[in-house]
Amino acid sequence: MRVALLGPTRVEADDGTPVDIGGARLRMLLARLALDPGRPVPATTLIDDLWGDQPPADAQNALQSLVSRLRKVCPAVALEPGGYRLEIAADDVDVFRFERLRAAGLLDDALGLWRGDALADVRDAPFALVAAARLDEARLSAEEDRFADGDLDVAELTAMHERHPLRERLAGLLMRALCARGRQSEALHVYAEVRRVLAEELGVDPSQELRDVQLAALRGELGPRAVVDRLPVRLTSFVGREDALARVAELLGGSRLVTLVGPGGAGKTRLATESAARHPAHAKGRVWFAPLAGVRAAEDLTVAVLGAFELSFAADPMRRSADGMSRIVEVLAAGESLLVLDNCEHLVDAAAEFTTTLLRRVPNVRVLATSREPLAIDGESLCPVGPLAVPNGQTDVAGFGAVRLFLDRATAVRPGFRLDESTADDVKQICRRLDGMPLALELAAARLRSMTVRQITQRLDDRFRLLTSGSRTALPRQRTLRAVVEWSWDLLTDPERELARRLAVFPAGADLAAIEEMCLPDAFYVLTSLVEKSIVDVSEHGEPRYRMLETIRVYAAEQLASSGESREITARFRRYYRELTDRWEPLTRTARQIEAINVYEAEHDNVVAALRGAIDDGDAELAAGLLGGMFWYWLVKGDSNRASASIREVLAFGDRLPADISAAFGALRLMMDAVPGTPPKDEAAAAIEDCVRTGAITSFPALGMVLPMLAFLSQHKELAYREVRRAAKSPDAWTRAGADWALSFILNEDSDLDGAEQARDRAYEGFAAAGDRWGSAMTLGMKARSVSETGDNRAAIALYEQGLALALELGSQDDLIQHQWRLAVEHARLGDHAAAARVVDEAERFVREIGNDELAAMVLYAKAEVRLSSGAPADAHELSVRFKQAASTLSLPSEFAAEWAATLDARIALAEGRYTDAEEAVAVVITTTSARGDIPDLAATTELLAQIRHAQQENDVAARLLALARLVRGRLDLGDPAVRQLVAELGDPKPVDLAKKQAVEEIRRVAGVED
The whole model's pTM is what? Predict the structure, then answer.
């Protein structure tokens, strides 16, 4: 919990949620306790501080009652023998955070905590007057300190002086600011006014300090003074490191040694330079910059630092280090100072010794170092400097640090360059593939002098030849990308180079066990040394994983190839991941599913690389094994495009594949190609028989679900029932659950709604018992849709929410959005439009964070449905247009996208009274749904057509359509308020004595669909 008193009293929970405290007396009590955080305040003190000399008759009981009320909203209030205590840390109260930041010299941060007058809403409390006065004085003093240490802003100082005309220090600062701008006469007028007011109101003369300022102004000693800038000249804008600047400033406020650590090309030197330029010592001319990149011998380090001070000496060379340090100490000890030591990595031992000596001998110096590894001395604070933020699939990328830097440097060499539809994809790819590393991005941008951005993107595989056009005035190791990496590589020991080149085999990094199995036994200490030297990054979310930036990995791969080890290490790599997927694939359908998914998440790019390599090298058996181990994970996570493409590539091996694998992949390919259409009936039947003949059905549990569905979708119902019966006899519980899941579709089409519901219940129980959240969530969604059709929207919402919780746990993006979509629509069907909008907003936030444009298009559609249901057809129309535009550029199935769009357009046209347009759109949907035999969607569209006919005053036709919809589905969708309203107006439709096929044909005729 956090308490804010620097303004109106405000309380926030740990997650940032505001806490409503209540009335004035409760806020007074909380504020008083917060002024002594973590310490008991005696009851007698609280009574005096809250009621003063007018306490209530039973003050102790009144206080106890007040505390009891406060604890209901603020449980952190505790009763102790010494009184009442607010159990929070001092830093959780903005008053004490202000004091800490002020003491650290972080005045902007400290003053940024103020939101108005201190204790603004509790100043009627007796304790508040003294406390508020003390805090107001502290705020004024901090503001004065900020001006004294930084820029003297005339406008701000004038405003403050007018509010506090008797504060002499403030008047002196204003006088200095005016003189610095050549306004001496105005400064002297300020002095005269202050002297007059002091005499009239207090009967005193100005202080000696203010008289000294007046005298200096009269002598002309306060004119503009040039700041001595010893930092390297900044010729380009500083982009993308604003947060890092704040972090460095904070670290320098609390530590005397801050080391910026990161790989070559990360921008450590520029960040150090910008940080030093903003440090208070710079305005006083007391910042020095010592470049060490050109220093080769450790004993020359002191001489290099002396050069930064423009000092030299002619003493005995044998004593130059000691004499040099003495002269450096003499300069730095003259006042608060900052020394920047740039590029320490190749002299790290000497730099550590030098810095230790300097910090010990000069108490008022701070050191800002840059290095590819820490100096590793006491008191060092590390500030990692890594890549700039890069986009990861997002549409709006202009705010990412890497993109901002690339655009800034690109427009410098090609003024007409812009981020638009023609360049955005290439810019995103450049930023991502160059890891967001500033130097690499600058070198790439420089290539725009002679190349297009597309040509640059196409040549990133040859990045070391491409990125060679750095500044001629830069250090040699910063002029080309290869030189940057070689500088770091040359600093490694032989064992470090051996491990580093072998690590190139891992595109997604690896854990220690994998590294030791494939690269180097007992690798831990060599590996941690590579981390220290910024060759390898480590992620410690769970089991530590080690990875290289892509540019370093490309260089390491070159070294691996030239070492002659590449074939052996690559073979180990592929075998390892074949064994890993063999081990974990069965667990993706068990109670260990989350654990398995996490393994796949971490190792995904490694397995893909192994699969890609096996395909490219023609290793059919290995490729098939890796694909078999990966396919179900892709399906669960919704990555069907990758799964489908990989299946096609592996099937291209033909007879080189084992028969059962070929049959299984053939059936899976047909199934994936069919969605949302209808698979060729004969081809589907042949694929199913191949799976039976080869025994694939026993090797691949997923086929227990896939084969019945393939038969069902290809309209081969008897074969579908046969495969359901076969799968239902499987010894595998998950396969039996999959069979029931498929059976529910078949029974639903046969209008056996009770049987379908029972099959879904068995499927859910089976998936839940197996521990499969994916199957459980999917089945809950189906159950929710069925329950909704009965008119019980609330029960459907509960089921959708249950499925959504499982999808969140699983991390399946597709399933998550699907559940949020359906949940939002169900809230709208219930009439709770506010809840529907909240769910859509959550979905929008999610897709923005993950940057998935296809899911973003689906959320657009869901939002359009919700807006239409809430009575805003114009909003829905605008969202429909945006959905169709997005769908045209994405890999959404074109038939589904067109069908969804037509359904929405029909509903919008109906709401707007454009009945002809609505009819035309409905005809499109009835054409596609009837052609593929999608009975639920056909029935829903028939109900929509009935609404259109009713609006056209064709009530007999509308009633007939309702009857046909009930016939083909088995019931009407009474969860839809529009359908309920239509039934209420027309009456319950009479039964229709037709076969389902005839009913479908009649629906098509009424819709005007030609056969």
Answer: 0.70
